[in-house]
Amino acid sequence: MSTTSDATLETPILDSNLPSLLQRVTEEGGYAFASIAARAAAGDARAAEAAKDMAWEQLHSGPWHSVGPIWRDAYSMASLHVAKHHFFSGEFDLALRALDMGLIMGGLTLRDDLNLCIRKVSAAAGAKESGDNCRPQEKSEWYRDFNLVEVVKLLPVRSLSCKTVAKKCRLSLEGFLQEHFISGSPVIISDSMNHWPAIDTWNDMNYLKRVAGFRTVPVEVGKNYLSPDWKQELITFSEFLGRIQSSDRSSANLTYLAQHQLFDQVVGKKYIRLYPASLSEELYPHSETMLCNSSQVDLDKIDEKEFPGISDLDFVDCVLEEGEMLYIPPKWWHYVRSLTTSFSVSFWWSDELNSPDS
Question: Contact at 8 Å (CB) between 263 and 341?
């Protein structure tokens, strides 16, 4: 038996700002939305769904930058109302999807409310999952047979035959700054992730499904964003895990979570090739502003007639193993290819005081 508070999602920011948010929506011409959202706030489940649909349409009424910020907050608001009804009905997966969509597509005003609700729904979903699966599951790992000699045959020409990225252990912060950050040279740091729990837990597929399976995530599908078949989708994390386990590994169906100054390999192996910033013009960058940091060259299928000299350019490369960090200096060009099912984490930062453009 549960208390009323146990079946309710608290939204303190929305509760205190609802009148002003609805007023701002009205000022942007959203009279109908404001009326429906008020009914949703009063407990009308159908009104909550209708308000979410209306806000969704506004988000897709033109280019993203042309959409008024209040409509992003309106979408977050409606997502919270929808999630409340699903949570009350015990539909935790649907509640989490609504909340995740609010995070992905909504504004910043109600983000703390969304995260607060996600923590509560996730805890409830986890408790339910534990009750439904009372027998402990065997650890399910990603590993398959790996033969580097065979893998190299699938990589771009000259892979792992030239200069490799330096690898260091016990590298101090001072040493990193002096020897790599200031000089702008890449390095693999081999022992700075040993304490990460993810090194072990992320190797267990059942663990990942248990803690995040219901969450909705944005994924990219296709070889890369320059490919004509590339697209973006919103799917659950469990669906994502199923796809990367699939035997269908064609470029059209490759699915990955995107989004490298510091590139940390948590699970599996990746091949990474780096070209220095000094070779930018020789790498044939796209002329369009939006793609000027992307090369026209497909290293997997180089057209020597269209891009003469590309195969002769100097580069460094490596196979990044589990538990290793790779520092990629600003403006260096990179090619990344998974050699096994793998998970990585990227960290970005900027040296704003000394180099605003880095």
Answer: no
